[in-house]
Amino acid sequence: MKQKVAIIGSGMAGCFMALCLSKKGYRVEVYEERNDIRKEKAGSGRSFNITLYYRGIQALKTVGLWTEIKKISVLAKGNYAHYADNRIVYDPYDSHDTEVLYTVHRNKLNGKLLDIVEKLPNVKIFFNNRLTHVDKKNKKIYLQNTLSKKIHSLSTDLVVGADGVNSKVRSEISSKSGIPEQESWGYKEVHVTANKARQMNLQPHATHTWPRRNSLLIAFPNPDSSHTLMINLPLKGEGSFRTLKTEKAIRQYIANNFEELMPLLLEIVRSILNKPTGNFTTVRTTPWHYKDFIVLIGDAAHGVIPFYGQGVCAALDDCLIIDKLLDESGD
Q1: How far is CA 216 from each of CA 157, 186, 207, 208, rounded to the nearest angstrom?
Q2: pTM of structure
Q3: Would you say 159 and 167 are in contact if contact means Cβ atoms under 8 Å apart?
Q4: 287: cis peptide before it, omega within 30°?
Q5: Residues 124-159: tens digit of each pLDDT
Q6: How far is CA 159 from CA 26, 124, 188, 227, 328, in A?
């Protein structure tokens, strides 16, 4: 009988790893501390659009998922940069205008992967289960149900840490295996309806950026011609989220720095005043595994700020590499 694998975290990395291992015949159990993300209220501000580049797309093609994921993604051929002097400059994503990216809302991508994985016969997903401890000597993990508060243990042959930048699995490998570095920037998300996007002349197959000296706003296209605007600002200091505490302050800030976004002022005010501020985190990890019992993937191993556009692509790549290594090592 194939070995049993416990994956901690049901995000993109966890789901994709479950799929790869399932295809090999492993018995896979996925444990997620939070509730099912598919039940989360839309527009909660806890997510944002992500980009899929070549290696992320190739990873999805390798396991036969790209056709399904492509349906919920939007092709973006280039970027329109909106400068403070009212110039708008379009740049394709490469010099030949052949390399493109796709943008997809994080929760939709995660939800689609969960839909696919939960149908696999040798995969089980358990939500509201928080990892409390790993017994490395006896190859056991201890989990607490976040609703009932009951703790239970189970034996497993392999633990995969896919639990993000604040990984509990990483801390169980070693107290020195990587401390998350909080970046000085944060983000808020604003939904731009299709009508507003047309009114503002936002092109549907491109990203839009508003680069400024101490801020960056990015609009990602969605399948229904709406856009998701990501407001990236410092957490403190001049022109930061800390200074934008009133409608008056926000109105003045947008009018002074992003005049063409004034049609979105009401939505921007609501987002900044009411939605939680997302934090950017960087993780540099060593070691990233413990013998043949624990391994880290995705943000748990190498969290990066989203401006590099490689977070989910690197996570999917991790899974394919581990899949290949399992073949080479005979499990």
Answers
A1: 45, 11, 13, 10
A2: 0.89
A3: no
A4: yes
A5: 999 999 999 999 999 999 999 999 999 999 999 999
A6: 13, 15, 33, 38, 19
